[in-house]
Amino acid sequence: MTGEGLPIALIGVLMALWLVGATVAIWIGFSLRRRSQKILRQTSRLARLLETAPAFPVVVKGDGRIEAADRFSRLMGLSGPAVSLTDLGGRSEGGLSNSDLSRLEEKVRETQRTGKDFVLPLAITGSPRRLLVMGEIADTVIYPNGAALLWFFDSTESLRELEARTEESEKAKAAFSALAGLIESAPLPMWHRSPDMSLNFVNQAYVDAVGASDGFQVVQDGIELLEPENGKTAASFAAEAMQSGLKTERIVSATLGAERRQLRVFDIPLGTDGASGVAGMAIDVQDLTAARTEFRQLSDAQRHLLNMMSAGVVQFGSDYSLIFANLPFQRLFAFRDQWLTEKPEFARVLDRMRENGKLPEVRDFPAWRGERENWFRNPEPSEENWLLPDGTHLRVLAQPVPDGGLLLIFEDRTEQAQLASARDILLRVRTATFDNLFEAIAVFAADGRLSIWNRLFAETWGLPDEILIRHPRLDEILPLMSKHLKKQSQISIIGELVRMTTANREQRRSKAVFADERIFQIATIPLPDGNALFTMLDMSDSLKIEQALRDRNAALQEADGIKAKFLANMSYEFRTPLTSISGFADLLKAGVAGELNGQALEYVDAILTSAERLSEQINTVLDYSQSEAGAMPIAREKVDVRTLLVNSAEAKSAFARERGVELHLRLEEAKGLFSLDSKRIGQAVGQILDNAIRYHKEGGEVLLFARTSKDLLEIIVSDNGPGISEENQKIVQGDGKKALQLSDDPILQGLGLPLAKQLIETHHGTFRIESKPGEGSTIIMTIPSR
Q1: Where are the transmembrane segments (predicted)?
Q2: Are strands 55-60 and 673-676 parallel, antiparallel or unpaired?
Q3: How far apart are CA 439 and CA 437, in angstroms?
Q4: Which of 3, 154, 670, 677 could form a disulfide with 641 if both were Cys (CB 3.0 to 4.6 A apart)?
Q5: How many angstroms separate the CA atoms of 224 and 245, rounded?
Q6: Within a 10 A sphere around the Cβ of 68, how many other Cβ atoms?
Q7: How many CB atoms lie within 10 A of CB 380?
């Protein structure tokens, strides 16, 4: 290489190096350019991200100056950009209040000094906006002098939502507390079961019902309010409700406190999946059930009462269908009960009434029916009078009922209409009747004024018509009436009678003697309308007849006494020779006068039998006379009835054998002692047995039956003899004397039956004959213990 070639070569090398270096520089430049563009794009994205981020970054340097985007000033409500923290406050509108600014500055200084993070809520003055500041130490590389990085978040909506949620939470807590208090103080037992059906909560009413000390004891011991039903416990019913997801209810009986009550029990699943358990409650429906029963009974009684009324009553429901119709309604309108059971509507009922001719004849029936349907909507009751084609007058009362139905009452006033039309006729008839009475009649009002009188009243007292037609007062006509009295001072008694009857409403009587010797019976009678009826009856002839009857009665009583004395004397006179006859006959039979042959003994026995029969008849006459006079003594004592009747029958057994009559006794039911006069009852039974045997055919039968109860003795004598006619039965039942006088029946021709009847009635008993001719007779005697 030459000397010239070396520089050229060196230049070439340098050029090559420069070219290489330029190429590398260009490549590095392009790389830096690409990198810077990438950084610019990232910076732009970060700036955009910061612009759209919900947080606003603010750097507070150590000297108090701040670095922040322009939109931060808009966030703070400032009119211009803020340079330092102090620029954020001290304004009436926008920025921070002095207190918030002081707190922020204090937190920033603390963070710059210690590096401690903080969170601080702030409010913008004059704006509802709320901010949340989160502070931390800034990057020391970028800001080596201890700057603080603040992130401002607009938490207005979040805080509002938080406040709303907090308010809702407080309301929910208050509502839950109120609900819990309500459940606790509820008067009906309530409880909650966990998903495993164990008791989780009970209220105080539940605790009181089961007699526990508190709810904790009930839950801990699992005390159930309800008893098992059909082998299923209360928890089983609750489990079924949770499985079905539906509320269930049932009626059960349970003991609340110490009383058995009827409860309506509800099991209510909580939540859709039953995870919240099952709630339960029990409502006491005992009173409701009793009230329903009472209402049903009251309704039945009311319907029964309505059926007993004379007015027709029908009730319709709010749907216009018939609910009830009483029997008078059915009869009045000729309805069949079968058709009414179909519950026809109101319009159909009117149609059927029209078909039966039980509605008034109207020209436009549909319009008339529509007007009657308005009764359902009228707030006040309606009243109408219907004149039916058959002449029936009906008063119709339509009464709306609170449930929207209608009650109709149909009162048949046909008779009232007829009475009203006949009122004038009755008044005329009354006047004519009064004028033709045998009594003098006048009616005085409560004020003493004469209102009604008849012709005889005016004639008796000589009162002229011109005075009477003025309806004078009592004190005005008394002076005129006094002129006709024998003693004119007695007129004051008549006036006092009328006044006392009007004032005291009491009936009064008196007599008035006229100057012509006529005697009047005066009576004053209170009338329902407050007036007094004054009547006068001429008793002159009646008093004369009455005196004559008294005189005759006295004569009859005297004759009856003479008769009684005669019977007593005659009976005594009969007994004296009868005793002698019986005594001498006994001596002859005993052989005192020598032995008697068979024929003579028969004669002596006949004499003794006749004497005994005559003595018995005399005793009967005396007893009957005493009984008729009411002087027969009765000595009650405790007597064995069966022994008494057996003795009476044995006394007649020989006579029965003699007459060929068979005597039967049935005394099994005559037990114990009974209070009676044994002598008189034995005499009565003996008389009846004697009568039955004496007038019986041979081969006949006589039955003596008796039975006793606690307060009554019944004796029956029955035979199959000739019997007693119905007419003769009435005679002997009514009057024994008449039986003796009028009857041609040999059975009644004696004092046997009349005396027996008198003896039984003296014991306050009854004597009854049941007989038919040819079929025998039955005499029934009953005697009370008292």
Answers
A1: 6-32
A2: unpaired
A3: 5
A4: 670
A5: 22
A6: 20
A7: 7
Q: Of 631, 648, 674, which residue sits at a domain end?
A: 631
* pLDDT tens-digit readout, 82-92: 778 777 776 66
Q: Among candidates 102, 94, 97, 154, which has minimal Cα distance to 126?
A: 94
**pLDDT at residue 717, rounded to an integer:** 92
pLDDT band at 178 (very low <50, low <70, confident <90, very high): confident
The count of domains in the chain is 7
Euclidean distance between CA atoms 206 and 186, whole angstroms? 10
Residue range(s) defining the domain that contains residue 513: 427-538
What residues have CB less than 8 Å from 209, skipping those under 6 apart? 189, 225, 254, 256, 257
CATH number at residue 195: 3.30.450.20
pLDDT confidence bin for 508, thresholds 50/70/90 = confident
pLDDT band at residue 705 under the 50/70/90 scheme? very high
Cβ within 8 Å of residue 221, ≥6 positions away: 212
Nearest to 148 by CA among 43, 64, 249: 64
pLDDT at position 221 over 80: yes
CA–CA separation, 624 vs 637, rounded Å?
A: 22
Question: How much is the mean pLDDT over the chain?
Answer: 79
Q: Which residues is 438 bridged to in the sheet?
A: none
| Closest by CA position to 191, among listed 255, 276, 253, 281 | 281
> Tokens 């509320």 — which residue?
247
Question: pLDDT > 90: what percent of the chain?
Answer: 2
d(CA 632, CA 616): 17
d(CA 20, CA 15): 8
pLDDT of residue 782: 92
CATH code, domain with 603:
1.10.287
Confidence grade of residue 740 (pLDDT, cut at 50, 70, 90): very low
Provide the pLDDT for residue 274: 61
Instruction: Say whether both 508 and 496 belong to one domain.
Output: yes
pLDDT at 743 over 50: no
Q: Residues 370, 437: one domain?
A: no
Only one residue has tokens 């009676």, namely: 676
Whether residue 179 is contained in a domain is answered as: no
- CA angle at 464 for the pair 461 and 466, rounded to the nearest 5°: 145
CA 221/CA 209 separation, integer angstroms: 15
* Domain membership flag for residue 386: yes
Whether 678 and 603 map to the same domain: the answer is no
Answer whether residue 169 is part of any domain.
no
Is 115 inside any structural domain?
yes
CA distance 758 to 732: 11
pLDDT exceeds 60 at position 747? no
d(CA 624, CA 752): 9
- Using one digit for the tens of pLDDT, what is the confidence trace for 407-448? 889 988 888 777 777 766 766 776 677 777 778 888 888 888
What kind and span of H or E run contains 133? strand 130-137
pLDDT, position 524: 87
517 and 561, same domain (yes or no): no
- % of the chain with per-residue pLDDT over 70: 84
Confidence of residue 14 (pLDDT cuts 50, 70, 90): confident
Are 478 and 529 members of one domain? yes
119 pLDDT band (50/70/90 cuts)? confident
Say yes or no: 647 and 780 in one domain: yes
- CATH of residue 771's domain is 3.30.565.10
Residue 693's nearest CA partner among 705, 684, 682, 702 is 702
Dist. CA 332–CA 393, nearest whole Å:
11
Total residues found in the chain within this entry? 786
Q: Is 6 exposed, middle or buried (0-12, 13-18, 19+ CB in 10 A)?
A: exposed
Identify whether residues 746 and 668 lie together within a single domain. yes
Give percent helix, percent strand, percent coil of the chain, each to the nearest 5.
50, 25, 25
Together in a domain, 490 and 527: yes
pLDDT given at position 746: 45
**Among candidate residues 538, 566, 598, the one where a domain is terminated:** 538
